[in-house]
Design goal:
single chain, about 525 residues, Beta-Lactamase, Rossmann fold, seven-stranded mixed sheet, six-stranded antiparallel sheet
Length: about 525
């Protein structure tokens, strides 16, 4: 069996434990009288979770001190090539765990390494900051930035790594920022396919989590001859993944279409699309004005490349907003993303950006079904592990009282036997844990994969006329009441009742469990009370 690369990492023992234990080449040496020390047990569990621990040995203090010789210390000061291999070992471990992000958090003399898996961020290692800086610098020097020098936190950095990566990785997005404690580096792992422990076979919008009805709405939008289709949500909500599989569906059903994408830079390979990167600068330091101008210029240029469908990775400022709208009103189908809280709020966000670009009154242009075709808001919610989930009826104290009350109000005839909560963990959801105690300490326990929860608006002219004359809130109320609109919480509750999602986890990720019907009833009550 091949050695686990994590077992070769130069992981340092926390300073307050250095006199009691020593870690080297996957072996944790512990002084006999300190075996039951809670801090050492905690350190051992962290090593177990990250797959770095081969075994633990009890030994004497004299033996531990002997292992800390100058020679051993010198050997731990790895050369540049080994430092890069160490960085790549973290990436390799991230791929094995299907992590979406790896965080390197510098806090004074210590650097903490955290992996985000299925939405949960857990600490997996820590080492001296000096050692961590060498590892991060080696990875940064290997990035696609021209003439990349040594890494520092003196200015924010945005870079990309695409060489020498594990097979399943398309690229790694590298971002850094200084903090009061030191700094943070976040690596976003960009996979060739979806990185989730819940997807093993062919992936489409339904397997991502969209309902059959929602998928049909998306296909209907995709078949429209022109207009803007906007996907919104916070960072890490799966917007780019939805774009990837939506466009691949379009290519599969309309292979004659010329699909172009404008991305800064491309995140995922999209079958059937020509992906155009925005090449802004040779430097890695963020220059927002330069990026904005380059982004808008590339969008405008692609309109002369005869696209049937254009995808703009993100509308992030006034320049990209006006360029995207220009594409939509000149007979093109344009898919894009924005950061907003719900589907209708995306319209307000675009209006604000268009005004930023100097457009005095954008609403008359947007309030046309030829120009605005669809609005999608989404989140990613962790799925229950089917192997160890437990019925709510037997564990009513597993969720907060407020969550239970919201769920009962949303589903009056709720059967608690059909609702499940997180289990204690098992070999399927916490494969690296050897004991029940280690499982309980892992935030992924009882969780296996993630699913999309979404709300989708296919605006008709009546809705857009209301938005133009009375405002977005009135249009949203009309959509909820007269178009049977469903909000994100409705979709989450469907999956709770279906036994797929823990009610408390769902509320933590999407907010209060209040359905569209409850929103309408509350709105009607307010209006009648005001008469």
């Amino acid at each position: 069996m091949a050695a686990n690369p994590m077992q070769t990492l130069p992981i340092s023992v926390p300073a307050d434990l250095a006199a009691k234990c020593h870690f080297d080449e996957g072996v944790l040496y512990v002084a006999s009288d300190s075996v039951l020390d809670p801090k050492i047990i905690d350190f051992e569990m962290r090593l177990q979770r990250m797959g770095a621990l081969r075994r633990k040995e009890q030994t004497s203090l004299a033996d531990i001190n002997a292992r800390k010789t100058p020679k051993a210390a010198a050997e731990s000061r790895i050369a540049a090539g080994q430092e890069l291999r160490t960085a790549l070992a973290f990436l390799d471990q991230g791929v094995k765990m299907k992590a979406s992000d790896i965080h390197f958090m510098f806090r004074g003399p210590v650097m903490e390494v955290k992996f985000r898996v299925d939405g949960f961020l857990d600490q997996y290692a820590e080492m001296p900051s000096e050692e961590g800086m060498r590892i991060i610098s080696a990875l940064y020097v290997s990035s696609d930035v021209k003439n990349a020098g040594s890494f520092s936190f003196n200015a924010p950095i945005a870079a990309r790594v695409s060489k020498g990566l594990p097979d399943n990785l398309y690229a790694v997005r590298f971002a850094s920022m200084k903090s009061d404690a030191g700094g943070v580096v976040v690596l976003r792992l960009l996979y060739n396919a979806v990185a989730s422990r819940s997807y093993d076979n062919k992936i489409d919008l339904v397997t991502l989590g969209f309902s059959e009805e929602q998928a049909r709405l998306l296909w209907d939008m995709a078949a429209a001859p022109n207009g803007l289709i906007v996907i919104d949500g916070p960072t890490g909500s799966g917007k780019s993944t939805t774009l990837k599989y939506a466009l691949q569906w379009v290519h599969e059903h309309y292979p004659q279409f010329n699909i172009l994408t404008v991305e800064d830079p491309p995140e995922y390979p999209i079958v059937g699309a020509q992906q155009i990167p925005v090449l802004v600068q040779d430097s890695d330091v963020e220059d927002l004005s330069a990026r904005s101008r380059a982004y808008g210029n590339v969008i405008n240029t692609t309109l002369r490349l005869d696209p049937d469908i254009l995808m703009v990775g993100e509308i992030r400022d006034g320049v990209s907003a006006i360029s995207a709208l220009r594409a939509a009103i000149t007979g093109h189908r344009l898919w894009t993303t924005v950061h907003a809280n719900d589907a209708w709020e995306a319209v307000n966000r675009i209006i604000d950006l268009l005004r930023e670009a100097g457009m005095v009154d954008p609403m008359p242009v947007l309030a046309n079904t030829q120009n605005l075709t669809g609005l999608i808001a989404q989140r990613l919610v962790p799925l229950l592990c089917p192997n160890c989930k437990r019925p709510l009826s037997e564990h009513p104290d597993a969720i907060e009282q407020q969550t239970l009350e919201e769920l009962m109000a949303a589903v009056p005839n709720l059967d608690p036997h059909r609702v499940f909560v997180r289990g204690p963990g098992c070999k399927h959801c916490v494969p690296m844990a050897d004991t029940a105690e280690q499982m309980r300490a892992d935030s992924r326990r009882g969780i296996l994969g993630r699913t999309v929860v979404a709300e989708i608006v296919r605006p008709d002219q009546t809705l857009l006329d209301i938005a133009r004359s009375k405002g977005i809130p009135d249009a949203r109320r009309f959509w909820l009441k007269h178009r049977n609109g469903k909000v994100i919480a409705d979709n989450a509750i469907e999956k709770i009742v279906g036994g797929l999602v823990d009610p408390q986890v769902a509320r933590d990720f999407v907010g209060p469990l209040i359905t569209a019907a409850q929103i309408v009833a509350g709105s009607d009550s307010e209006l009648s009370g005001g008469v």
